[in-house]
Write a structure and sequence with these properties.
Blueprint: E1 2-6, H1 11-17, E2 22-26, H2 40-43, E3 44-47, E4 50-53, H3 59-67, E5 72-74, E6 92-93, E7 97-100, H4 107-112, E8 117-120, H5 126-129, E9 130-132, E10 137-140, H6 143-151, E11 155-158, E12 164-165, E13 178-181, E14 184-187, H7 197-206, E15 210-213, E16 219-220, E17 226-228
Parallel strand pairs: 1-2, 4-5, 7-8, 10-11, 12-16, 14-15
Antiparallel strand pairs: 1-17, 3-4, 6-7, 9-10, 13-14
């Protein structure tokens, strides 16, 4: 198991995740703005059977993916330093759906999901804002995403992004604090600092997921935690 994380993730969180697999710590410079320069969900889009990686992902990470026998394809869009040129790969893919701002989705993602239902959201940072608990239930920190999903017959609960840390911004996004492996939802930080923790726990636990808090600090938007299985594990 390879676990892709932001290099800026707290060491305590990295140590706990290291019990579940090998960490690939992401750090870039001069591609996107600094707050998200190590965010996995900016440079990688996770599909059922592998990854779609940004065209300008630094070569050292491409070589690591190859050496670790990770299945991936390369996108067509280079990332940019400002929105919306930062969101080409920040989509959510499931067995049935592609959820993203479809005006900015990388063409490779669009081609690979041509048989799925495409759901448009105005929010380009879709993965940052969305937690998928299966194929038909979601948690989001963006009310526009919530409306889009409900219009397409999907259940989605909104939780405020307040009190989620992201350097240089008033707040981060809830989906960016999380990653899911099997039925474990890992969250970077402690829900003890989150005003809506009880309702969040109730929903997540109600769908059969166990929450593992990676630190005792406030929730930290680390650009999602991506778990990807090797071709030969």
């Amino acid at each position: 198991m390879l676990i892709i994380v932001d290099k800026k993730m707290p060491e305590e969180a990295k140590q706990k995740l290291g019990l579940y697999g090998e960490l690939l710590e992401l750090q870039t410079s001069g591609i996107v703005y600094p707050s998200i320069s190590g965010h996995p969900d900016i440079f990688f889009c996770q599909a059922e059977n592998g990854l779609i990686v940004a065209l300008d992902l630094p070569d050292e990470y491409i070589q690591t993916l190859k050496s670790k026998k990770i299945k991936f394809v390369t996108g067509k869009h280079k990332l940019g330093s400002v929105y919306p040129f930062t969101v080409s790969y920040n989509a959510v893919l499931g067995r049935k759906f592609l959820i993203h701002n479809l005006d900015h989705t990388d063409p490779v993602i669009a081609d690979l999901t041509s048989g799925k239902t495409s759901i448009h959201t105005e929010q380009g940072y879709t993965r940052c804002n969305l937690i998928s608990l299966g194929e038909e239930y979601f948690i989001t920190s963006d009310q526009g995403i919530q409306r889009s999903l409900k219009q397409n017959g999907l259940d989605c609960t909104y939780f405020s992004p307040q009190n989620i840390y992201l350097q240089g911004f008033k707040h981060g996004f809830l989906g960016g604090t999380c990653g899911i492996l099997n039925k474990i939802l890992f969250i970077c930080g402690s829900l003890n600092h989150y005003e809506w923790a009880d309702d969040f726990r109730k929903i997540v636990n109600g769908f059969g997921y166990v929450i593992t808090e990676l630190t005792e600090d406030v929730l930290f938007d680390v650009g999602s935690i991506i778990f990807v299985r090797k071709i030969i594990d």
